[in-house]
């Protein structure tokens, strides 16, 4: 008789914090804690972080400094980090860049999504961006700017808060019910005493998405910025991204967002859902 094995289903990568990863040690025999901690160190580098030392990496991740020292040595040995001797710190190496570049290429984001996003940015004079979840934030994968002066100085790698931005709310709206419930529970832990107000606005955004297919945020996460966003469901809904369109809140009133930009970003999201991650 042929032996069959089942592949364990991993937890949602958007939810597993460093603390949760530590808690899984010993509870899940499929979970490799050392690997999770190494990847956590790579996550600790933000868009403006050129160099980070072991002490700062330990502070950001909660991993003990002796463990951080061993992990950074290993990551540098295989090219995921580079040790800069005169700084006595590390920077991201080329090895860490390759998986992200292959994801963007393999999903079709560079070849398929970028031209369509750029066309909409030129047509509307707004910034158009595609994002994926990362913990409590949305991480920009691709950003297309309009002609003229930049209003939103955001680039790939920039982060927006998940709960208060249009692009984060749209991602939540695109999730299946059980997964959304799990993410909401994690957001509740993050926001603490502020959660009741945050939850009220999120629930309103979920109702708005159900009615018209997009979410809006007018001068919320940043008082100078407003935007509309829609979820991009890929691979039969097993993966969800989010796409937004935005600009200065003084120019983009709620009426403009709801009557013009929202329907246009919803249409682009529907188009991308049929074209990204499609087999050749």
UniProtKB/TrEMBL annotation:
Pfam families: HTH_IclR (PF09339), IclR_C (PF01614). GO terms for biological process: negative regulation of DNA-templated transcription. Residues 32-94 form the HTH iclR-type domain. Residues 95-278 form the IclR-ED domain. It comes from the Bacteria. One of its GO terms (molecular function) is DNA binding. The keyword Transcription regulation applies. Keywords: DNA-binding, Transcription, Transcription regulation. InterPro entries: GAF-like_dom_sf, HTH_MetabolicPath_Reg, Tscrpt_reg_IclR_C, Tscrpt_reg_IclR_N, WH-like_DNA-bd_sf, WH_DNA-bd_sf. PANTHER family: HELIX-TURN-HELIX TRANSCRIPTIONAL REGULATOR, ICLR FAMILY, TRANSCRIPTIONAL REGULATORY PROTEIN. This is IclR family transcriptional regulator. It comes from Cupriavidus pauculus.
């Amino acid at each position: 008789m042929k032996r069959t094995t089942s592949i364990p289903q991993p937890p949602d990568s958007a939810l597993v914090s460093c603390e949760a990863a530590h808690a899984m040690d010993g509870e899940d025999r499929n979970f490799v804690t050392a690997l999770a901690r190494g990847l956590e160190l790579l996550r600790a580098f933000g868009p403006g972080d050129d160099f980070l030392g072991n002490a700062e990496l330990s502070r950001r991740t909660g991993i003990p400094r002796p463990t951080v020292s061993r992990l950074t040595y290993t990551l540098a040995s295989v090219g995921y980090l580079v040790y800069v001797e005169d700084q006595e710190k590390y920077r991201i190496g080329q090895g860490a860049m390759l998986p992200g570049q292959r994801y963007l290429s393999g999903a079709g984001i560079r070849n398929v999504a970028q031209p369509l996003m750029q066309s909409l940015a030129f047509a509307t004079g707004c910034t158009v961006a595609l994002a994926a979840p990362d913990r409590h934030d949305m991480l920009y994968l691709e950003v297309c700017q309009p002609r003229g002066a930049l209003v939103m100085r955001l680039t790939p790698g920039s982060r927006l808060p998940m709960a208060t931005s249009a692009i984060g709310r749209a991602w939540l709206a695109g999730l299946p019910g059980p997964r959304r419930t799990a993410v909401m529970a994690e957001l509740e832990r993050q926001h603490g005493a502020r959660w009741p107000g945050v939850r009220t606005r999120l629930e309103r955004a979920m109702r708005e998405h159900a009615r018209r297919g997009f979410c809006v945020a007018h001068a919320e996460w940043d008082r100078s910025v407003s935007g509309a966003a829609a979820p991009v469901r890929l691979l039969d809904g097993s993966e969800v991204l989010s796409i937004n369109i935005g600009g200065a809140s003084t120019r983009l009133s709620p009426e403009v967002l709801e009557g013009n930009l929202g329907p246009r970003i919803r249409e682009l999201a529907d188009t991308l859902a049929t074209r990204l991650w499609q087999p050749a």
